[in-house]
């Protein structure tokens, strides 16, 4: 197996990955702020983290993975008050939606899924440590972090703060500060706002202190990996480092991994452009969870991902091809014996798959190894050259592939139903159905009965019944 190499934002380099404790990875992931449904840009990052986690598990590491849910911030407080609900009541719906979305995208649950509001005491005691080290100063009931006292500030994002004038906004805090660079650790309550009564006064935590306190509680003072979207590197992760390292005097995280942005059809995603999508928006259009997962994971995480509907359709077709091939292996009748060179060919694909993922999680390279083998396998089957002896090896390879990519199991219809998309034929136009019927006829003509049956099942799952007439024609109707 290849040595695992990961790009570390802190060093700006690709480095060999070696955790502190042999065989164990302590990883922290900034989770969503649960004031709304997360969008596909968020899920690009969460799917990347899942691929990373699954690959590390495949390579035998025991994961200690924490993901937080930010369930207190300005927007949540405002929205909850407007809805006349407690913070917990208001966020509950979006927390549940996030869990459901993750399940639908086959994102594994981390070992700890935790909420900020359950960790106020840990945040308070971390702020007290910073107070005793003189890294803080008070202001109108709030407590601020004094960046000027932390000389390494900027080491992660390499941002040069010398040009930032006092009064400029580098953070969302709407409070008075000594320097524009400083940020709030603790925010005084505003009239009518929810607050906690604590040893450092009444108020609520700033966003950054949440992650430092929660990460260190579950993972110790030095983490192996900290991940997030690239937009979090500054100021959020920079502030996490400043707080944690000022309190402990130890490095906070050894590897920082950041996923690049997602564009939609070449443009920045925004509600005003009408190109803003949650998972549910796409499922309502009839797209499958597995296709979306493949689409989000197929571009390596450090490259910008240009999400397009053409790409999503292509991913849908790719999944069909993979599943059809797996079915062909399972149900096909092949002559006994071994096809010459097949064992070596499978070993080469497995090696390339591992090398791709070890290469800073180059998912495109790993997937190419899979697609190449599937294409060659299909050709060998079509020509009648494929032998039974190759079945087990390829099945094992596909199982390994699926431990990381998790798209082979044919469970999209069930997942969509669980999410409330009961009428799964929604989005399937007459033309779509005719196209699938024609595909099935073509598959039958090629005597690819596995593919034909799969299409029949897919249509049935989406409420379409096929009737094969004696003359060979096919009629369809909606259930
Ligand atoms: Zn965070």
Structural features, described:
With 479 residues, the protein is an alpha/beta fold. Helix content is 45%, strand content 16%. It has 15 helices and 17 strands. The protein has a 5-stranded parallel beta sheet, with helices on both faces. Strands 6-7-8-10-9 form a 5-stranded antiparallel beta sheet. α1 crosses α12 and α14 (430-445) packs antiparallel against α15 (449-461). The longest helix has 23 residues, at 309-331. The protein starts with a strand and ends with a strand. The relative contact order is 0.11.
Q: In one word, what is the shape?
A: globular
Helical coverage, percent range: 40-55%
**Strand content of the residues, in percent?**
15-25%
| Radius of gyration based on Cα positions | 26 Å
Termini separation: 51 Å
Strand arrangement, major sheet: 5-4-3-11-12
- The averaged pLDDT comes out at 92
């Amino acid at each position: 197996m290849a040595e695992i190499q990961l790009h570390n934002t802190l060093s700006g380099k690709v480095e060999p990955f070696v955790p502190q404790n042999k065989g164990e990875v302590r990883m922290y992931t900034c989770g969503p702020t649960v004031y709304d449904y997360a969008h596909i840009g968020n899920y690009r990052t969460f799917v990347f983290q899942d691929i990373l986690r699954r690959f590390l598990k495949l390579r035998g590491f025991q994961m200690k993975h924490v993901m937080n849910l930010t369930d207190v911030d300005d927007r949540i407080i405002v929205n909850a008050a407007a809805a006349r609900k407690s913070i917990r009541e208001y966020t509950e719906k979006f927390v549940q939606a996030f869990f459901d979305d993750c399940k639908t995208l086959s994102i594994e649950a981390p070992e700890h899924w935790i909420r900020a509001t359950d960790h106020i005491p840990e945040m308070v005691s971390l702020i007290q440590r910073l107070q005793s080290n003189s890294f803080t100063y008070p202001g109108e009931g709030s407590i601020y972090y004094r960046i000027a006292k932390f000389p390494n500030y900027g080491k992660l994002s390499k941002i040069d703060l010398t040009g930032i004038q006092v009064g400029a906004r580098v953070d969302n805090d709407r409070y008075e500060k000594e320097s524009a660079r400083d940020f709030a650790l603790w925010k005084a309550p505003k009239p009518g706002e929810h607050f906690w009564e604590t040893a450092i006064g009444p108020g609520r935590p700033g966003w950054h202190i949440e992650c430092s306190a929660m990460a260190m509680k579950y993972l110790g003072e030095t983490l192996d990996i900290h991940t997030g979207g690239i937009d979090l590197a500054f100021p959020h992760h920079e502030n996490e480092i400043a707080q944690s390292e000022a309190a402990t005097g130890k490095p906070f995280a050894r590897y920082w991994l950041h996923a690049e942005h997602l564009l939609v059809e070449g443009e920045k995603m925004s509600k005003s452009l009408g190109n803003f999508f949650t998972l549910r928006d796409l499922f309502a259009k009839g797209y499958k969870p597995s296709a979306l997962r493949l689409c989000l994971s197929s571009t390596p995480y450090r490259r910008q991902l240009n999400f397009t509907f053409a790409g999503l359709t292509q991913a849908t077709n790719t999944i069909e091809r993979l599943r059809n091939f797996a079915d062909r292996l399972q149900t096909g009748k092949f002559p006994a014996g071994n096809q010459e060179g097949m064992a070596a060919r499978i070993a080469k694909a497995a090696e390339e798959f591992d090398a791709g993922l070890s290469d800073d999680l180059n998912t495109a390279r790993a997937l190419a190894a899979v697609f190449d083998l599937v294409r060659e396998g299909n050709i060998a089957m079509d020509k009648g050259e494929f032998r039974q002896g190759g079945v087990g090896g390829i099945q094992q390879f596909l199982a390994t592939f699926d431990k990381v990519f998790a798209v082979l199991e044919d469970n999209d219809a069930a997942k969509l139903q669980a999410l409330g998309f009961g009428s799964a034929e929604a989005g399937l136009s007459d033309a779509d159905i005719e196209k699938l019927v024609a595909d099935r006829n073509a598959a039958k003509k090629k005597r690819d009965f596995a593919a034909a049956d799969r299409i029949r099942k897919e249509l049935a799952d989406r409420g379409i019944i096929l009737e094969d007439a004696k003359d060979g024609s096919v009629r369809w109707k909606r259930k």
